[in-house]
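Weekly modeling sync, notes
Attendees: S.R. (lead), two postdocs, one rotation student

Agenda item 3: backlog of single-chain predictions. S.R. asked that every request posted to the team notebook include the full sequence so nobody has to chase files. The rotation student volunteered to paste the first one in as an example of the format we agreed on. Action items at the bottom.

Example entry:
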Amino acid sequence: MTKKRKISKGKKSKTNRKEHHVVPNKKEGGWDVKINKSGRRTFHTRKKSTAIKKARAISRKHKSELVIHSSKGKIQVKNSHPKPKSKRAKSRRGKK
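Predicted structure, as returned to the notebook:
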């Protein structure tokens, strides 16, 4: 007899997409840039604007999503930096 698997309806599973977060540092003050809300910080600065600039550059380099938090920790903005489409796909569109 074979076992039947339950297929869940509703929430889809999260993708393994990398995220970079700009979060407030309550212990030292200032702002941290972290990967996927991990405990380790990638970068620390006093100003939020500097942290956002640095995080945006890192996020573009790694083609990941950038999540900016408020001083209270809530998400303010989400920006994604998708992988560019391949040149091959672009060249095929024009041909018939």
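Discussion: group reviewed the output briefly. The chain has two helices and five strands.
Action items: rotation student to repeat for the remaining queue; S.R. to check formatting next week.
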